[in-house]
Structure of Cell division protein FtsX:
Amino acid sequence: MRVQFVLQEIWIGLRRNMTMTISLVITVAIAMALFGTGLLLRQQVDASKSYWYDKIEVSIFLCAKTSSNPSCQKQDVTDQQRQTLKASLEKMPQVSNVEYENKQQAYDRFKDRFSGSPGFVESTREGDIPDSFRVKLRNPEEYKAVAQQMLGQPGVDTVINEQEILKRFFRILNGLQVAALTIALIQVIAAVMLVGNTVRLSAFNRRRETGIMRLVGASNTYIQMPFILEGAIAGLIGGLFSSILLVFSKKLLVDRLAGDVQLVSQLGWSTVLAVMVLSICFGVLLCAVASFLTLRRYLKI
């Protein structure tokens, strides 16, 4: 009988404040979806960092007639210069491996890496990418020592550290994550305020019933339970809707990012499922706690 009464009171409260309940569900859904999207972006950044930082290389591009460096535009690098550079690199203690890549190999790798952007590939011709040495470092942080020794050597055009490119890219992803979490925080504050107003209005509409329950000896927990569960159920429904939005975030944002930008690794559905469960639990807990605190603060029952 007690369970039936509590459930009946929950239904009455939700039905009487249907407009505010719907607003609360929508607010919670958006807040939890943005919160989950921020977590997905964080997982994407961490997964990409752990995957790509182990594969970081220093690219030493050699002189070619197509180089932007004026000192390299007269002729391509000579065989003697190439052999001297390779020998110097192999002697450096910071270097663990050196691979030479000619123009044909560089162009083939370029087409494979950017196969998802056919327009970009078509605008690049074979020979536009010069010969290079792809250098694997024992410690990626020791890039400057290698660059300083190679720059200015005969036959060297430019030295590019892939780690710096990755850092700039991951800073952009971190910015997206901070933006999503900031908006989510604003939505969470709005949800807490809506929960408070909804619970207060529901308690005001049922003040006669709660007064009678108080007179017959009902405990505070028994009286407050329907109001707290109203908020929790609204949070649960909002969390479930946020899970649907997270599926769209995964498909339209995370997967598209991984497909269009070759530097990003794919994020598995197991991670998305874990974020969904966390978002739902957080939404339920948020609304339940907000309801409880509102009752303690504003209602003397």
Q: What stands out?
A: The chain has a mean pLDDT of 76. The CA atoms of residues 201 and 279 lie 27 Å apart. The two ends are 22 Å apart (CA to CA). The longest helix spans residues 162-205.
